[in-house]
Amino acid sequence: MKHIYNPFILTFVLTLSFCMGCNLTTVGNFGNTLIEAASDVNIFTDAEELQFGKEFVAQHERQVRLYTDPVVTNYINDLGQSLVRHSKRNDIPYTFKVVDTKGVNAYAVPGGFIYVHLDLIRAAKNESELAAVLGHEIGHIVGQHSMKRLTRVYGLEILKELILDEDDSTLKKVVAEVLAAGLLFRYSRDAERESDAYGVQNVYDAGIAPEGAATFFETLSEIRGREPSTLEKFLSTHPVPSERVTNVRNQINGLLPKSGLRTDSSRFQRIKRRIR
After folding, report:
1. pTM of the model
2. Are strands 95-99 and 113-117 parallel, antiparallel or unpaired?
């Protein structure tokens, strides 16, 4: 991985250099303190995040079946990009793909890669519900939640690579470990709350009814009671839906009234019929 100057990384390196004369116990304790302090810090640049994301996607897509119907994939990309334009991090490229794997789920990979399961599109009752999910996943990219987690888990290891100037093979190794352990999608509750908030604001700013965020969580609660296995993957990477309805409704109630907010579209309903 070719690293780009990052003042935060430089501070880490200088601090570690200062501690070269410390004994191992002191260094170990200091390292733990740094990791705790970095729990909400991302040491990676945008370019490094994109490079990590591309390598992750290359390995991940060997394990999933992508859905390639251009009518459906173009729609998902168009809806996603319309949200990206109004998001709080729209200066990086985003890629939206559909996964033909059983289960209601969606997830974001660092670098702007967002995947949506066919079953989630089927589960959404209207376009605003689907947009709320995409907005939430964009929120994870905006909040750089996966990169912050990688900083916490691999931060000092990455710094070692910087100091020693080792080759790029480390990237493939780290990605393989992250993929195998499922580390990338184990977000904290605070990260999920932040993504929900980003998502609600995003769809509202894009002219879509934010109420879809609340009604989709209610839809998931119905599915959970009826077909719990359908939500197995989703619930393994997201909090229980019922815990989130109150938060998003409170946020929605605090938004200024806006006319013309879109709840559904004929294009979405055609897509629903097409994949049924």
Report:
1. 0.80
2. parallel
Match 């709320």 to its residue by tokens: 132
Q: Which residue has the tokens 């059983």?
A: 102
pLDDT at 165 over 60: no
Whether the Cβ atoms of residue 163 and residue 13 lie closer than 8 Å to each other: yes
CB 99 within 8 A of CB 64: yes
* CA quadruple 11, 14, 16, 22: dihedral, nearest 10: -140
Q: Environment class of residue 156 by beta-carbon count within 10 Å: exposed (0-12), middle (13-18) or buried (19+)?
A: middle
Lowest mean pLDDT among 90-94, 125-129, 191-195, 230-234: 230-234
How crowded is residue 153: how many other Cβ atoms within 10 Å of its Cβ? 18
Sequence-distant (≥ 6) Cβ neighbours of residue 236 within 8 angstroms? none
What are the φ/ψ torsions at residue 97 (nearest 5 degrees)?
Answer: -135, 155
Decide if 99 contacts 65 (C-beta within 8 A): yes
